[in-house]
Amino acid sequence: MYLIAVYDVNEKRVNKVLKVCRKYLNWIQNSVFEGEITKAKFERLKSEIAKIIDEKEDSVVFYILRDTKYTAREILGQDKGMLGNIL
User: Fold this and answer.
1) What letter would DSSP give residue 43?
2) Residues pairing with 59 in the sheet
3) 9-49: pLDDT as tens digits
4) 27, 48, 63, 65: least buried by Cβ within 10 Å?
5) Which CATH number does the domain housing residue 19 bear?
6) What is the DSSP string of the chain?
7) Is residue 85 part of a domain?
8) Is residue 32 one of the residues assigned to a domain?
9) Number of domains present in the structure of the chain
10) Which residues lie below 8 Å from residue 75, measured CB to CB, with a gap of 6+?
């Protein structure tokens, strides 16, 4: 499955959430990640984030796409994620 994760968390916890997301997804821009992920890894991602955030104060949204063939990505301005030439 293809996943887009967007979060808005207290600055005390933002670096911890960032590190967890980087383990599973590609960084796109501030507080936004995307990428292919298995169901098992998605469950681990959610579990790790749930241990970090304060549900009364923080928010994490996951957009789950079964297939990317019906999606398009258009960027205005700088492409901060730049997944290009990674060796």
Assistant:
1) H
2) 8
3) 999 999 999 999 999 999 999 999 999 999 999 999 999 99
4) 63
5) 3.30.70.240
6) -EEEEEEE--TTTHHHHHHHHHHHSEEEETTEEEEE--HHHHHHHHHHHHHHS-TTT-EEEEEEES-STT------S--SS--SS--
7) no
8) yes
9) 1
10) none
**Is position 83 within any domain?**
no
Q: Across the beta sheet with 2-8, what order do the strands follow? A: 26-29, 32-36, 2-8, 59-65
Half-sphere exposure of 3 (CA within 13 A, CB side): 23
- Hey, what are 25's tokens? 């997804």
Residue entry with tokens 């098992």: 40
Q: Give 46's Cβ-side CA count (13 Å radius).
A: 13
Distance in Å from the first CA to the final CA of the chain: 24
- pLDDT, tens digit, 9 for 90 and up, residues 46-76: 999 999 999 999 999 999 998 777 777 777 8
| Residue 9: closest CA among 47, 83, 60 | 60
